[in-house]
Amino acid sequence: MLKVGVLGAGHLGKIHLLLLQQSSNYELVGFYDENAEYAEKIATEFGYKRFDTIAKLIHAVDVVDIVTPTLSHYKCAKVSIKSGKHVFIEKPIATTVEEAEEIIALAKEYNVKGQVGHVERFNPAFTAVREQIENPMFIETHRLAEFNPRGTDVPVVLDLMIHDIDAILSVVKSKVKSVHASGVCVLSKSPDISNARIEFENGCVANITSSRISMKNMRKSRFFQKDAYISVDYLEKVCEVVKMKDAPKEEDLNGFEMILQNAEGERKQIYFNNPEVAPNNAILDELETFADAINNDTTPVVTLEDGTEALRVAYMIIDSMNENN
Questions:
Q1: Which of 174, 224, 237, 280 would be a feasible disulfide site paired with 138, CB 3.0-4.6 Å?
Q2: Does 320 share its domain with 215?
């Protein structure tokens, strides 16, 4: 079993602690949180071992799970990697692209593995249709959340939209050509709602909307490709695939088919598929797959490079917002 320690015992850190304790791939050694009073409370309440310095925790483990505020991701990753430890880093990977690129370089230099916590890659609704998303040419996503002060120290792009940026980059195998975006500050000092249009070199266009001041929660994506439409509801964990194929001859129809005919007289049959979505805990799955990558010396599902590219595109969106505001 891999010995693991958690840096940061906030809202998400506590979830990681609970799941790592349940995992059969990890031995949870303990945690560190810079708020000593709060850390003592967590240790007493849940029975986790509390370390009083980051250095002591790092020394005691094989894997460091970094669930601290984004501003400290780079510092925590740097000291962990230089100690020869594998790192799991919550999204976004770092505060800046330059920091993220240095994390990549350090991981290569010290021959350790790293994974970034883009958890929607493990959402069962997405994984159920992932292999059916082939060369999408138009993508539309909406990620709307009710207001929560936690996370408002950064723009909504880094808080929410980056989830969809990463998912889109994982299925569009083309470089970003251009980005056009706008955003509005409503309750926070940084934008609370943003819309971005990403154009890729292969012609694909992604239209992404994120808000943290909505009346209801929504996390939906729609992928349009030749002869298919695929929808993913990350929140409700359901998906749908609508496909088209050449319609049978009239004499072969039974009367129940859905047939469409275009202006050129071509007839297509529409058929629906609701793939089975197997229930899972996406956070546990991402942690378990990282253990598999370490144990089997394979590439993590969400690499440090993936996390860096998502951050790079996020800052392209933020730059475009700043230009247009």
A1: 224
A2: yes
- In this structure, the answer to whether residues 139 and 273 fall within a common structural domain is yes
- Tokens 């490079």, residue located: 305
Interval 258-281 mean pLDDT: 77
Q: What is the pLDDT of residues 180-217, one digit of tens each?
A: 999 998 888 888 999 999 999 999 999 999 999 998 99
CA-CA distance, 43 to 26, in Å (whole number)? 19
Strands (E), the chain: 2-7, 26-32, 63-66, 86-90, 114-117, 138-144, 176-184, 193-200, 205-211, 218-225, 228-233, 238-246, 258-261, 267-273
Closest listed residue to residue 202, CA positions, set 164, 172, 180: 172
128 and 99 belong to one structural domain: no
CATH code: domain of residue 237: 3.30.360.10
What's the predicted TM-score (pTM) here?
0.92
Per the CB < 8 A criterion, the answer to whether 191 and 142 are in contact is no
Q: How far apart, in whole angstroms, are the C-alpha atoms of residue 99 and residue 102?
A: 5
Co-location of 169 and 244 in the same domain: yes
* Structural domain range at position 217: 121-281+313-324
Number of domains in the chain: 2
Helix (H) or strand (E) holding 169: helix 162-171
Q: How far apart are CA 316 and CA 310, in angstroms?
A: 10
**Pair 220, 234: CB distance under 8 Å:** yes
Per residue in 132-159, pLDDT tens?
A: 999 999 999 999 998 876 655 678 999 8
